[in-house]
Design goal:
4-stranded antiparallel beta sheet, alpha+beta, 7 helices, homodimer, 201 residues, DNA-binding, 26% strand
DNA sequence: CGTAGTCTTGAGTATCCTCAACGAGGGTGG
DNA sequence: CCACCCTCGTTGAGGATACTCAAGACTACG
């Protein structure tokens, strides 16, 4: 991927900063190098949906159209993003099979993420949604299956991701804690104690 | 795309037939030529999720891994599917930039579909979910923005797609009908009367 | 024409949302 | 270093929504 790396621009972002907006021309592809970000859509009635959380290594901003439909915002301080000019990357993909294949792989991974998300949202009860969400985060966090990790996003972010009220997320988490399924340290540090209790029921 | 077309195998499927199963080796890419299909996941507790409805023109079965996680089943009689051997298609994509770019475009389209679906599932009330679902189907149906179309899938399918109970789907539809937002002919033929009434509550 | 599956409708209950108040943490400025 | 403030998180009570269980009506198929 040295060929693609020659095109890259690396930019740090502050917490809350917008990486790209919903009406920006889609002239770049992006990859998160460090930090965490959220991809969100603002609905006509003012509500907000979070369609994806972006972790280090994740690519985003891929789109066939010429305009993004979502906004991407940094969630933590010093969220570092690599940016690839779309046109030149596409030209490179046409001439370099290695690059083209890599981009296809990345697109397939992104699709996998979207499908996993769909399965989580398809859960019916709040406890199941929150449980599945924690398992997803634990799995995506550094790729390894770690049991303890940091949830950098707020309860409101989680709520807008799972289509729940923030209070319901909070209640579900305390409930999981009291059942012994997870342990919480100051609201943002999670340790999974009983994996099975997060899926069943 | 004549290059890819030389690899294709076309197969008709009966209503209810399995196009590929959850444990099949992912040795093919697919495209729906006619009919309708559902992509579904079977959960450990026996419930079913429908992750996507596939309409004519849609590609599916793209995956980086070596095994599918979902099953795809025909919903209507005579659902015709084109099948491309994955390995050979990948080799072709490496050697033919045209093919490679087309596959990237298809992957991006599939991602768009997944994101649209996420927005629908993120709706909170049943009426909004069903309304958004109808608008999605109306839009995807033949690409044109038609107001009258056929909903070939059962209420149970819609329910498993929207994470609702089948009864709730039925109630939401009759409610929309009584409000004058849609007209129904024998449960499966829909005409959209008032588009705005489908989005804003 | 008959039957099996699907769709609709009803009643009661569980879940989640809304509104509200309180508490905790982190950051800032004195 | 401490006090303040402000955002975020938690908890409670009441009401709305959707689910479950159940039965009846209709369709589509054989």
């Amino acid at each position: 991927m040295e060929a693609l790396d020659s095109l890259v621009t690396v930019t740090p972002h502050r917490r809350g900063a917008t990486i790209y907006g919903p009406d920006d021309p889609a002239e770049h592809w992006y990859r998160l190098l460090s930090g965490v970000a959220r991809k969100c859509a603002l609905l006509p009635d003012g509500r907000r949906h979070i369609v994806d959380f972006l972790l280090p290594g994740d690519f985003f901003g891929f789109i066939a159209r010429h305009e993004h439909r979502f906004a991407v915002e940094a969630i933590v301080e010093d969220t570092v993003v690599a940016r690839y000019p779309r046109r030149r990357a596409e030209v490179l993909a046409d001439s370099d099979p290695e690059v083209g294949r890599r981009i296809r792989e990345v697109a397939f991974e992104t699709m996998s993420r979207a499908q996993a998300r769909t399965l989580i949202l398809g859960r019916t009860t709040a406890a199941e949604k929150v449980g599945s969400f924690l398992l997803e985060m634990a799995e995506r966090w550094a790729g390894a299956t770690v049991d303890a990790f940091v949830l950098p996003m707020s309860r409101y972010d989680i709520a807008d991701y799972l289509a729940l009220a923030a209070e319901t997320v909070s209640r579900a988490l305390t409930d999981l804690k009291q059942r012994g399924a997870i342990a919480l340290v100051r609201a943002h540090r999670v340790r999974i104690v009983d994996r099975d209790a997060l899926t069943l029921d």
